[in-house]
Amino acid sequence: MQTHITTTPFGRRSLSLAHVASQAVAKARPLDKAVHKWNVFRAICTAKARIGVSERALAVLDALLSFHPETALTGEDLIVFPSNQQLSLRAHGMAPATLRRHLAVLVDAGLIVRRDSPNGKRYARKDRGGEVELAFGFDLSPLVARADEFEAWAKEVRAEERALKLVRERITLCRRDIAKMIATGMAEGVPTRAQGPADWMEIHGLYRAIVERIPRNAIRQALEPIAEDLTLLAEEILTLLEAHVKTSVSSGNESQTERHKQNSNPDSPIDLEPRFRESRGAGTELKTEPSRQPEGAYPLGMILDACPDIIDYARSGISNWRDFMATVAVVRPMLGISPSAWEEAQAAMGEVQAAVVVAAILQRGTAINSAGGYIRDLTRKAEAGAFSIGPMLMALIGKRKGEKKRA
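Above: the chain sequence. Below: its structure as tokens.
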């Protein structure tokens, strides 16, 4: 029978007060307490950030648990003594040096306790009946003693993850609602506190300022104030639209019909622009095909992959080139691109390429200080034959893939 339980590690490994505390917790556990080892392991995986262990260290813990023959952890026989070779195999072929490093992490985190033999080897001595009477290896008792603590941490982490998911969903819904309500307000000429589209552009600028505050990798505490600001803005815009609808309904049928006469054709693109000057000829009106890809244009799916933000401003999504061009007509004045700069860009680049440039400017956000000056510079390059839309799209797609990889 074992008369003394070792408390210090073999060799030059040091003994810290944290190790002593872990051993005290394991020693004080009730001997009749039993826990499901894989339930405890799942709780530890969920709360790994709180505990301070990595995925590689958890792979080593998984391997150690597999050497315990029973599913339930109870009693005193909780010491496992695998060799480094067998432990490495069950840890997916982990290198010996890496294995030792992660074992030390598990010990420091208070998940296991070292029970080293006089020579540092792991083994067990059995009595004449074949029962283990003395074992040296890794003690799994802390998992039993701290099972309730790990489960409580796991519940807190799951609750935090759910709250973070909800606030992200709230931000996404508010962004969609605000963008489409602004587009509707501009297209229908809904008055704000004062007359004129400049007021809607100010609302759009406020919306973009709030969106730019969203961090790339944000915690819930950082996102909640942003979600609150977006919710308030969405409610204010909705109040403007509802007030305009009530005013329209209360007016006579004749005036209501006159107000909506310009939008009687549902297939026509949104026309927020003044007509091109007659000196440019009769063929300068906006013409879009509902489904056919314009000659020489990049695929619409590729453009939306590079510039997904423009979808937020579409009235009913973007499924063809007609939808894309109509949405660009809404976004262009929001960005502050003047009609003259727009005409020159269309003349130099072509109608579709100029629209793609607008979508790209929207996607880059605050990286471009002056959208009008930027598109004029690109127009000059296009007139000199030194501009192509392809590298711009590739750069945007590469940037989005890099952000997803980092996230």
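Strands lie at 35-36, 72-73, 79-80, 113-115, 123-126, 132-139.
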